[in-house]
Amino acid sequence: MLMGPAWGHQIKCVLAFSWWLKVKILNEPTESIESDKAKGWLNRTVAGAGITSALGDFCYETTTVILPGFLAVLGLPAAALGLIEGIADAVASFTKMISGYIADKLGHRKTLVLIGYGLTPVGQVLIALAAGWPLLLLGRMVSWFGKGLRGPLRDAIVIQAVSPETRGRAFGFHRAADTVGAVLGPLLGVALLGLAQGWHWDDAVGPFRFVLWLSVIPGALAVLAFLTLVKDPQHSPNPALKFFSSLRGLPARFKRYLGAVGIFGIGDFSHSLLILAATTLLTTSMGIVHAAQVAGLLYVWRNLIQVAVSYPVGVVADRMGHLSILIAGYVLGALTAILTALAFWFVSV
Question: Closest by alpha carbon to 151, among 107, 120, 192?
């Protein structure tokens, strides 16, 4: 059950942009990135984006792994977590939809990516200060707005920095680096949570706030890394571009792909809810902090699998074709949902 979402998520992430790039890349100027391409797929832009993503994931994935326990010690119900994560995911999704349009209209992709990375630590600060669900929701929305803003533009920059034949490998490497942060962040968060538990705090919330404040540091470093390491090709603004006109101009095949992604997304769920379920089930026997640590380690295991399959999936996609591998990813995602439902059913009977 843990391996399914990791395999499926990585396959979908590695391949999704291949559809959009068939239309978009041909219209972008390429002279400024030929020197990067000549150096091979692992160039400064790809490496820099990978480092940036690792630091960014280190920041917000630390929150993902301890947020369920944080809500539990604040006395908030599971429904609050579902509401917070659902709204935050919706914000990220809609932001992704318009971020490419804004970048094309203004011609400042790198600036928008930097703003997106800068919003993540801002959201972390709001979460660390929260004493109830409203500020938690605001902090998560700010972080996820930044994630939605930067993601498509950063990925477009990365893939334009390499040749068509190596896009799968480059993006697979990028996703692997991204997930390294998603492994190290939760691991350090779990370790620090256990360490801080032995210190004197006025209440049970103290150790969680301590970890949340520390997570701001890698978020700030991510902004610095992208600013200094990543080179964006020349990108001319198009002030006359209209949002709905550009949507109508998308290929019918891409629109069908978006429809399929939307249908799948209706049945998808946040990993935070699974972490909360594990925390709740283990709290009776372990206590809230220890239960949150164990649940966090289960999430780390999931991310380790994600790291292991990222680059191989990219290589296989380059050699076998993207469509069949993409379909396999969605099949694994559906199987994961079915197995998760069966697991909870067997526990309840």
Answer: 120
For residues 207 and 200, give the distance between their C-alpha atoms in angstroms, rounded to a whole number: 9
3-27+41-236+251-343 CATH: 1.20.1250.20
Q: Show the CA angle centred on residue 77, arms to residues 123 and 130, nearest 5°.
A: 30
Give the whole-angstrom CA distance, residue 338 versus residue 192. 34
**pLDDT tens column, 34-85:** 444 445 677 888 889 999 999 998 888 888 888 888 888 888 887 888 888 8
Cα 65 to chain center, whole Å? Answer: 13
What is the chain's Cα-based Rg?
Answer: 20
The model's pLDDT over 211-252, given as tens digits with 9 standing for 90+, comes to 999 999 999 999 999 999 998 876 666 666 666 676 777 788
Q: Would the pTM count as exceeding 0.90?
A: no
Domain ranges of the chain: 3-27+41-236+251-343
- In the block, residue with structure tokens 């709740």: 280
Query: What string of DSSP letters covers 79-102?
Result: HHHHHHHHHHHHHHHHHHHHHHHH
